[in-house]
User: Fold these one by one.
Assistant:
Number 1:
Amino acid sequence: MRENMAKIIVIITGLLVVILSMFFSALQNPDLLTDPSQDKASVASGSRLFLEQGCVRCHSFKGEGNSHLPLDESADKYTHAELISWITGADDLKGIMSSSTMKIKSKYQLLTREELGAIVEYLQQSDSIH
Amino acid sequence: MTSIVKIAGWVFAYLFLILAPLFVLLIGEVPTGSGFLWDFSMALGFTAMAMLGVQFFLTARFRRVTAPFGIDIIYYFHRYLAILLLVLIFSHYLIIRLTEPEALMQLNPLVAPWYMTAGRLALLVFVVMIVTSLWRKALQIHYDEWRILHIVLAVTGFLLALMHIQGVGYYINAPVKQALWTIYIIFWLWLIIYVRIIKPWRLLSRPYRVTRIQRACCNSWSLSLQAEGHSGIRFKPGQFVWLTLRSTPFQIKEHPFSISSSAMKTEQLELTIKELGDFTRTIGTTRVGDIAYIDGPYGVFSVDQYPDAEGFVFIAGGIGVAPIISMLRTLADRKDSRPLTFIYANNHEDEIIFKDELEALKCCLNLNVVHILRDASNSWMGETGYVTESLLKKILPEKRDGFQYFLCGPKGMSRSVQINLYRTGVSRSCIHFELFDMV
């Protein structure tokens, strides 16, 4: 009976952790709850793509995302074409960018020219935080 | 405060400790959601980190925390929680592996970012911890070596997980959260320092000296310890202590044993120990004058937990007599007149510990002692076999309302006696036992 008490509290803990983690995730992703049928193409702005493509996991821009690698000054340093190279992990960056990062970036090669352009335009916004 | 309120309070505090950090992440600057599964995985990872800290707290043996539950249950909880923890950490990894494998970057530590390698190593360390704890005996790991390994792995795993979170930086980069997270981590690190340095240092200033070592029966010994330069410990009969012998408290070579002496004589402790494991097999080589250290007392297996009981029934197997004799000796010293029954099971007659003293205690207590042997000789006149339902019906007093029942013996015996007691109409809440042999 006493041993079962330990088991029950652990099971309750597990359930609470899963439920609250789901709640946490739902709070972080309100679009999933409010408008799941939204057509992605219709909101494929650079800002939207920046979030959708998971850029914020490693980078921050205008205060959003992982501040470990901020992109606020990227537009000042690189041209439009260079930024597309950095986003897609182009071959000319071999040796500059690590192979593991190149691998992650390779998936962005599947984005269309318009989508990549939208992301770059978003990064080049003049009201970015410097 | 009643036990129920205390238990509820500590369970609430525990849930707060493991779940609150999750919502601290939502204070101030918060990264935008990156998909339901991604953020779900992050939440599992952060909660697992908070639970890791709680694991250190659970085994720190804070008496106020452990008292309402019994420390044996706390250790069981620690074990089950570790399994849940591993499931959560593995789920954190697996969700990313399946949904965003590129985010895990390369496996090769030479090219992978250090913080990703730290995360992978932490997962590996936790797997090793669980395997070596659940199957220690099958893996033939010595208990003392296992304890050191367990502590080293726990601290290493905790630090690696911390490096992983700090390195990734996701969710905790805002200054407020950095500060809160740092305070939280410092608290757990302080706890590790308290348990491994401050507490052993305090024990060092309260030594005991071995004054007598006596064979209690064929393979059991009674060890008498005298407090040196202090007044000893106050304990309830039936409680146990962690004994450090032939080493210092810093060396983590301590073992739990029930106190077998009377709680009315605190200056001298007696521990009765059976030669069963790596450490106990050497107990007979202890010499008078050896220094010992005592951490305790712990446990809720005591008649003193039930001062209003009408009477007590004790059922022990083998060395399980140790806490029972402590309770009987204490009740005798207090001149307690309540009816007591002691059913004592052994394999052979020569294994009966305290046989003569139990007979003598009948003179000063309202005590009925029933010995039962599994392998009795032809000359044995007492009960034989096991503690069955029919034996209990025959021996237990007819009027036993308000009685409390204490079981102490091997796990198999304890389980079967519990079932037989239920069958004889004893309520679960009146049956008390402690669970050991956890690793």
Number 2:
Amino acid sequence: MTTNTQIPVKLYFEDVEVDTELPPLTKSPITHLQLVRYAGASGDFNPLHTDPKIGEAIGTGGIIAHGMLIMGFLGQLLSDYVGPTALRKFDVRFKNMTRLDDVITCTGKITSKTEVDGETLISGKIQAADQNGDVKASGTFTALAPHRKEN
Amino acid sequence: MFDTSRVGESFPPFKIQVERGKIRELAIAVGDDNPIYQSVEAAQAAGYNDIPLFPTAPTIFQFWGNTQMLKNLLDLGLNVMGILHGEEEFEYLAPIQNGDTLTGTTKLRDGKSRKGPNGSSMDILNLETSYSNQHGQVVLIARETIIVRG
């Protein structure tokens, strides 16, 4: 292997079919500490994610998680599945607020396999839902998945 | 309510250096314990040159890179305490590596302001940030929709 390989292949085009499900990812319950840590890491210091008094004052009923933390969980799902450098597009729509102690499970499914300009791409839909099945975020992704070379 | 006449405007560009320590910190905060985000050795053993970009690492560029964003939004007349994140999209166009210097330019692509009952309002804004690297190559586009209750 050369050291300038930018895209280690985790998933080949032949490995998936339309409707193949991604291995689900269940995260630990959301804690206040995690939100403080995420605020520092991301730089999003909006106090409604860290200060319970603000949450009560603006009517969200306590602190709510950063939407981008939930997208981060979906990012982990995709990183585990295709690897971070294979991603071409990743989008989510935030549906509901996530609160402390929520347990988020990320799932996904392949929706298409295409070949564009000599690149083989897979696309899928993804979602993050809590312990009650309440969907917090849903979206799509497209990633590079090269052909498996025959030896 | 915000000043809808400013749709189409770009905010002043900002610069951010890609740092592996910040990527590592983000992965830890998300709770992703994949060793490729924790050490260069583990990343190289997995075939990467360096610690790779965590998929949502562009959020670091936005918040730590564009320290004027809050001011920019205030200048539009938005109630920044009422901001909710509606959608986020990343389009990864070329590799981004530790040590790269990115220049980001955020544009207000679209926006609507709706009047609600009792003098309330709801603003929906579409922002797009284009990032180019030190070689002038566009490497990433981030698009977001924010919803602001005023």
